[in-house]
Amino acid sequence: MAYSGVRVERDKDSGVAVVTLDRPGRHNAVDLAMAEELTAVWREFRFDDTVRAVVVTGAGGKAFCTGIDRSAVVPQPSSPYSVDDPLVRIGPKANDLWKPVIAAVRGLACGGAFYLLGEAEFLIAAEDAVFFDPHTSYGMVSAYESVYMAMRMPFGEVARTALMGTAERLSARRAYETGLVSELTPPGEEVPAAVRCAEVIASYPTGAVQGTVRAVWSAKDAVRAQALAHAPQLVTLGNLPPERQAELFAARRAGFRLR
């Protein structure tokens, strides 16, 4: 298939595919078209036996992903018990793909980026990568994002990252220290490092690899599913109206603390 916001490169010899979020002019923010394309990519990989391991990254060097594109218009149902979130199916596990996925992160990774990072097996980051969650600063509940990060980071680190909003950013070094990132590289070396790992994994028997991926995730499935089930109601109850969110976004302050 041809995609506009996502670039897919397959190496049939190694069995590795590289998925690149390809909207660098928008810091790889996810619009509705890209969300649909990511869903299609993961579901396509389920049937492509030449793909045995995947690397996901962002184009341009300035950002891995900055979450949903703020220009995207997402109509919401009137029921307070329902939320339409176009990001809930942009990750591999949400699409029943149990082939290993490694995230290669450079530059900004914030907000909705955690939907993708939260469903990767592990993260490799450039030393200039930074992570933050802006939701609370703009009157939005960090629900899905916090749940995904709580599966990877100590409770206090998740709470601080979510609650401090745009005032703080987590450096690649601190992300490595907390366990969010498994390896740091010089800028520009994060994708080659991830590909090297993917090539090793792809060289192993497929059934054993996918079974291991499924076993690792089964350790957290029950807790994760239960936590995510609360997310729509928390978002509905806690989010400010969109127009008020826009006002806070327009009035945002420059500057932040990097830790």
Automatic annotation (TrEMBL):
Which range is the signal sequence, renumbered to this chain? none
The record ties this protein, via InterPro entries, to: ClpP/crotonase-like_dom_sf, Enoyl-CoA_hydra/iso
One of the entry's Gene Ontology molecular-function terms is: catalytic activity
Single GO BP term = fatty acid beta-oxidation
Q: By what name is this protein known?
A: Enoyl-CoA hydratase/carnithine racemase
Q: Which organism is it from?
A: Streptomyces wuyuanensis
